[in-house]
Design brief:
This protein is mainly α. The protein has two domains: 2-39 and 201-392, no CATH class; 43-181, abc type-2 transporter like fold (3-Layer(aba) Sandwich). It is built from 16 helices and four strands. It has helices at residues 2-14, 20-35, 58-69, 80-88, 102-107, 123-155, 162-181, 193-196, 202-220, 223-231, 245-273, 283-305, 311-328, 340-345, 350-362, 372-392; strands spanning 47-53, 73-77, 94-98, 115-118. Strand 1, helix 3 (58-69) and strand 2 form a beta-alpha-beta unit. Helix 6 (123-155) crosses helix 7. The radius of gyration is 32 Å and the shape is elongated.
Length: 396
């Protein structure tokens, strides 16, 4: 009952300031959404392209067919007025106009200009423009082959009329297009299934990393609870009760760990249902990792509370340490991007082992047994921090 009462007291103190909900829920969700590219979720789907074909010739239709076959584009054939109105209303980020005289200009060897409008500062519009250029480049290669074929036929005096010229051009164009279609559009790599599961997933990285960051910082912030109680002289009242230091600290750790687990559950749910991160590969592994991480973090915050003297000092120090340790632990950027020496040094941080364990579960398809080393290290951190906190705990 003492542990439960202490935990409830800490809960009331922590959320006495409504701004605490900012760190508990709002900032974690916002940062996870932004860093996962949430604002551009669905960017893998084809980009809408308003296509106006004012020429309606054979070559214009073939070029439009190339756009339709491109996987990154979703052309919507419209009239010029409809296209301009839809583009102005932001119903599509790109408007492409094939002008009248498109075929005549290409057949005569003249330079033909396409009109392309795109939404500024829009990555999908930029990607769509590159896709249009790629289709145009492939189309131009076939035209160049057809022109060269006509030129060779004229040199050999094989052309006696415009019909002959048009027939050679059309047949050469078709043959070139078929030949180019046989070429691979892209290089595709394949790996054994076990190796494929280790591929980097920026959305999963953001979901795991931001969860660790925003759970870790508030748990370090419980050091401020000790500072408040010392300054208010409420800790001295414990001297008149048969409450031992381990019991008091255990109550603090228990209560804050439960809150942290609730926060983790919310962020995992957000990642799974909103960002489509596969958190369900090993539920037992996720649960054990979450508990061990919470114990290590809250024990660290408890130990930190024995060093700070004021609430402001505790707040500043917990935010600074939390951000730095999260960054160095690979929560904001993959640890593989760091120098090898630094990758070794940061193994002294609990955030490194938390990130290693959670990413193993989410991105590498590991189970509880495979992340057991991370669990044991985190529990070791928890014991060390708790022992130091008990040794240094003072009422005044």
């Amino acid at each position: 009952m003492k542990i439960i009462n202490i935990a409830w007291k800490d809960f009331l103190m922590r959320f006495s300031d409504r701004s605490e909900i900012l760190f508990f829920l709002i900032l974690p969700v916002v940062f996870t959404f932004l860093l996962s590219g949430g604002a551009s979720q669905g960017s893998d789907s084809p980009t809408p392209l308003l296509l106006v074909n004012e020429d309606e010739s054979q070559l214009a239709s073939e070029f439009a067919s190339g756009l339709i076959e491109n996987r990154t584009l979703d052309p919507q054939v419209v009239s010029l007025s409809e296209g301009e109105r839809a583009y102005k209303d932001n119903r599509a980020p790109v408007l492409l106009v094939i002008p009248s005289g498109f075929e005549v200009g290409l057949l005569s060897g003249e330079q033909v200009s396409l009109e392309l409008k795109k939404t500024p500062n829009n990555s999908r519009a930029d990607a769509a423009e590159q896709a249009v250029r790629a289709v145009l480049s492939d189309f131009d290669r076939s035209l160049e082959v057809a022109r060269n074929s006509v030129a060779e036929a004229e040199m050999l005096s094989a052309i006696t009329s415009e019909d002959d010229k048009q027939e050679i051009f059309n047949s050469s164009l078709l043959a070139a297009q078929n030949a180019f279609n046989l070429e691979p559009n892209k290089v595709e790599a394949s790996w054994p299934e076990k190796i494929r599961t280790t591929s980097y997933d920026p959305v999963a990285q953001a979901s795991v990393g931001q969860m660790i960051t925003w759970v870790f910082i508030p748990l370090l912030g419980i050091s401020g609870l000790f500072a408040i109680e010392r300054n208010n002289k409420t800790l001295e009242r414990l001297l008149t009760t048969p409450t031992s230091k381990p019991t008091f600290l255990l109550g603090t750790i228990t209560g804050q760990s439960v809150l942290a687990l609730i926060q983790i559950g919310i962020l995992i749910g957000f990642g799974a249902f909103i960002l489509s991160v596969d958190w369900g590969r090993s539920p037992s592994g996720v649960l054990v990792m979450a508990i061990s991480f919470c114990l290590a973090a809250v024990a660290f915050g408890t130990m930190l509370g024995t060093f700070v003297k004021t609430e402001k000092q505790a707040s500043n120090l917990s935010i600074m340490l939390g951000m730095v340790m999260a960054l160095l632990g690979g929560c904001w950027y993959p640890l593989e991007l760091f120098p090898s020496t630094l990758q070794t040094l940061v193994k002294v941080l609990p955030t490194t082992w938390a990130m290693q364990g959670f990413t193993g579960l989410v991105m590498r398809g590991q189970d509880l047994v495979e992340v057991l080393s991370s669990v044991l290290v985190l529990l070791g951190f928890a014991v060390i921090f708790f022992v130091i906190g008990v040794k240094r705990f003072r009422y005044e």
